[in-house]
Amino acid sequence: MRRIVVFAVAFAIAALGATALSATVTDQGGPTIEVSFTAAAHGEPITGRVYVAVSRTNDRSPIDQTGETGVPFFGLNVEGLKPGETVSFGADTPGYPVARLRDLPAGDYWLEPFVNVYTRFPRADGHTVWLHMDQWEGQNWKRSPGNIYGTPVRMHLGPQSTSAIRLTADTVIPPVVVPPDTATVKRIKLRSEILSKWWGQPIYLGATITLPAGYDDHPNAKYPIVYSEGHFSLGPPGGRGGAAPNDTASGPKMIWVSLQHPSPYYDDSYGVNSANNGPYGDAIMQELIPAVESSVRAIREPWARILTGGSTGGWIALAHQVFYPDFYGGAFALCPDSVDFRYHQIVNVYEDANAYFRPGRSEWVTLERPDTRQPDGNITAMMKDENHFELMVGDHSRSGGQWDIWEATYGPVGDDGYPKRIWDKQTGDIDHGVADYWKAHFDLRNILETNWATLGPKVANKINLYVGDADTYYLNMGVHELNDFLTKADDPKWTGEIVFQPMAPHCWGPRGAELTDKIVAQILKYAPAGADTTSWRY
C-alpha cells in the first residue's frame, strides 16, 4: 500500500528573500492565480491537471508537503493547454484540505505551480481515456519524468490584495536513472505486447533479480525462486544493498525477484487481470516470469516457486496463489490489503451505506470512520480525508492513490471508460452494485470459500498470512475473516498458518532469516520424490 514507500521530491526553491506578491480578489471575494508552462519545458499542448500548492514554509517544496494531512493545494483539469496559455485559479476553485481558494485565511504563503501531464490511451475495449503514463518512476506524479514544476513564489493573500499573481512551470523532472547491475543484482525491462495492445500505448514490465552468493562458483546448481511482490522499486528484493535475503556463509540459497508492473493507475497493477487495468495477470505469467526464469538457473517447477510480499505485495502474493494455484508452491503474505471486503479496511462495502460515516447509537449522532491509527489507538487520519485528497489529485480514479487503484483493480468499467466508483468520492455513499462485482471477482476469502471444493486441494497447504493485530490500516480484520473460514474448511483441511501479532502495526511479519527458514521448510516438505533439493544448499 501507499504506506510502504514514501518518495521525497527535490524541487528547486526560491530564495527566502524573494519579493512578496499579491493575488487579485475577484468579485466573488477571493484570489485569482494564473498558471502557465513554458514552451522550453513542453513544446506541445498538454491535457492533464494543473496544481497550485500553498504553504507557510518553503523548507520543502509546497508540492512535496501535500497529502491527506498536508498543506492546501488546488487543482484543475486542462485539455489542450498550449505553452504560454494560462489556466486561472479563482475564488471558487476547489482544493484540499481547504475547500475553496477563497477560504484560505489571509497571510503570507509560498505558492508552487505544477503540471501533471496525461497520455491518451485508446484501449482495446473500445474506451479512450486520459491518464498519467508511468515513466519508470513508479506512477508518482510528484516525481514523474516529464511533469513540470515552477519555483515557489512568496505572496500575500488577503481581502485587500489588488494585483494578480502569475506562476510559471518551467522545470521538467528529468528521466529516472536506473541503478547499474552488479555481480549479484540483474535487471530486466521489456515491452509487454499483451498490455501494449490492450492500452494502445507502449507498456513496460520489469524485474530486479538477486542472485545468491556462490552462483557463479556453482554452475551446475539450480535454485528455487522467490517472487517478492510489492510496490514499484528498482532496488534489490530484501532491501540489503544487493545481498540476497538468504545470503549466509552456508545453507540454502535461492534466487529472489521483485517484479515491476506499474499501471496508468498506480505504482503497481496488483498483478491480476482486471476490467480497468487490463490483462496484467496474463502479461506477468506469459511474458515477464518466462523472461526472468529463462535468464537464470531456476528450478522451473511449482514446488520451487514461492510468493511473498507485504501490504500491496501481501495481497498480490495471496491473489497469485489463488488465481494461479498450480503454478506456485506457497504464499507467505504479510499484512495484505483487504482479503475480505466485509472489511475493506473497516468498511463493509456489502452492507454499510457510507464509507466515511456510520450511524451512532441515536439518530442525533453520526460517527466518522478513521483511516489510520497508531498501535495505542490514536487516530492519525480519517477515511474521508485520504479520499478527498485523492480526488483533488485527480478525478476519474486517476490520482495514482491507494483507494483509486482498488477501484481500478477490483471494479467494473463505467460508461465513460473510467473505473466505476465503489462509493461517491465526495460523500462516501456506497454503490452496492459495484460491491457485488468486487465480491464476485476479487474478494479472496469469498473466492476461496465459494470454490474450496476445487481450489482447496491445490492451495490448502500453501496459504500463510502474518499481520499485526493493531495494523495501522485495520487490515487485520479481513485476515480474521479469512482465518475464520480456513480454520473451519474441510475436505481438505487447511494446513498453513496465520499469525496475529498483538499490538503490532503495519507491516508486521517474518523477514530475513525467519522468513527464509519458513520458505525453505515449505520447499523441502513438498518437493516431489527425486527433486533437486541439494545443489542449492551449500
Topology of this protein?
Blueprint: E1 21-22, E2 24-25, E3 31-37, E4 46-55, E5 73-81, E6 87-89, E7 95-96, E8 107-117, E9 119-122, E10 128-131, E11 148-149, E12 153-157, E13 165-169, E14 171-172, E15 185-191, H1 193-199, E16 204-210, E17 225-229, E18 255-260, E19 273-274, E20 278-279, H2 280-293, E21 305-310, H3 312-323, E22 331-334, E23 357-359, E24 366-368, E25 370-373, E26 379-382, H4 383-393, H5 402-410, H6 432-442, H7 444-450, H8 452-459, E27 463-468, H9 476-488, E28 498-501, H10 512-526
Parallel strand pairs: 1-12, 3-13, 17-18, 17-21, 21-22, 22-27, 27-28
Antiparallel strand pairs: 2-3, 3-6, 4-5, 4-8, 5-7, 8-11, 8-12, 9-10, 11-14, 15-16, 16-18, 19-20, 23-24, 25-26
Helix pairs in contact: 7-8
Q: Please, could you describe this protein's structure?
A:
The protein has about 550 residues and is of the alpha/beta class. The protein has three domains: about 20-170, Immunoglobulin-like (Sandwich); about 185-340 and about 445-525, 3-Layer(aba) Sandwich (Rossmann fold), CATH 3.40.50.1820; about 340-440, no CATH class. The protein is about 20% helix and about 25% strand. The chain has helices spanning about 195-200, 280-295, 310-325, 385-395, 400-410, 430-440, 445-450, 450-460, 475-490, 510-525; strands at about 20, 25, 30-35, 45-55, 75-80, 85-90, 95, 105-115, 120, 130, 150, 155, 165-170, 170, 185-190, 205-210, 225-230, 255-260, 275, 280, 305-310, 330-335, 355-360, 365-370, 370-375, 380, 465-470, 500. The strands form seven sheets. Strands 1, 4, 5, 7, 8, 11, 12 and 14 form an eight-stranded mixed sheet that branches. Helix 3 (about 310-325) links the parallel strand 21 and strand 22. The longest helix has 15 residues, at about 510-525. It is globular. The model is unreliable at about 1-25 and about 240-245 (pLDDT under 50).
